[in-house]
Write a structure and sequence with these properties.
This protein is mainly beta. The chain has one domain. Helices cover 3% and strands 42% of the residues. It has one helix and 15 strands; from the N terminus they run ββββββαβββββββββ. The strands form three sheets. It has a seven-stranded mixed β-sheet. A hairpin with a 4-residue loop joins strand 5 and strand 6. The longest helix has 7 residues.
Length: 226
């Protein structure tokens, strides 16, 4: 079985889009990986068949770009967790990616092979959901089609027969807590790089059902009085 993959993003259909994502499984493997193309391989989420899941920096990027003073006792691992509980027998919601309306602003030519969900209405967001469904489960369409009114992005099977599904639906924009703290920069980067109107931020969090969530947000700098 060759490598299985799904690429997807949110687009306005007129040349503007948000971040592009890739979900894939290497040839002959069971593990599922998720990464943002704009991070250029710097980090990815790994959902291993063993049930030991993590979000981590690429080893090469960690060694060359993460400063010693910013490293922790976790090494290159940003987060580690065990497989969450199933939403229903044999149905597991592993990851959510939430893209607000305002994050669709990057000018990029249309690329073949990438699924584009439509830009959401003002004050709303597109949520992509990554489901893992065991082979004995028979679904009517795809996960959430009836109850959540989700739309299909794509799916593939791994050797065990488990199905990896990506679906999306439009949701009200969640209320995020106010975040405070001092930023950390990679080697060779600093405050002077936070310029222009094309800044984005990926925010990582936890959902009550045990799934992980990533918010793809547009970033703006507060202007200070002089």
């Amino acid at each position: 079985m060759p490598e299985q993959l799904i690429r997807f993003c949110v687009s306005d259909g007129k040349g503007l889009r948000a971040a592009t994502w890739k979900c894939w499984t290497p040839a002959g493997k069971e593990d599922v990986y998720l990464a943002c193309r704009e991070l250029k391989g710097a980090m990815k989420a790994s959902l291993h068949q063993s049930g030991s899941w993590h979000l981590a920096y690429d080893p090469g990027f960690f060694e060359t770009s993460v400063r010693q003073e910013d490293r922790t006792n976790k090494g290159r691992f940003i987060d580690k967790w065990q497989t969450p509980a199933h939403l229903a027998p044999g149905v597991l919601l592993a990851f959510r990616i939430v893209t607000p309306c305002g994050a669709v602003f990057t000018s990029q030519p249309e690329t073949s092979g990438i699924f584009s969900a439509p830009k959401p209405a003002e004050g709303r967001a597109i949520e992509f959901d990554l489901f893992l469904v065991e082979p004995m489960i028979v679904l009517s369409g795809w996960p959430g089609k009836e109850r959540m009114k989700t739309e299909l992005v794509g799916s593939y099977n791994v050797p065990s027969g488990r199905t990896v599904w990506i679906v999306y639906w439009e949701i009200p924009m969640p209320r995020l807590p106010q975040l405070r703290g001092a930023p950390k920069y990679f080697e060779g980067r600093g405050p002077e790089d936070l310029t222009g109107d094309s800044l984005t931020a990926l925010l990582f969090g936890d959902e009550p059902d045990g799934s992980k969530v990533i918010y793809d947000c547009r970033l703006s700098r507060a202007r200070t009085a002089t």
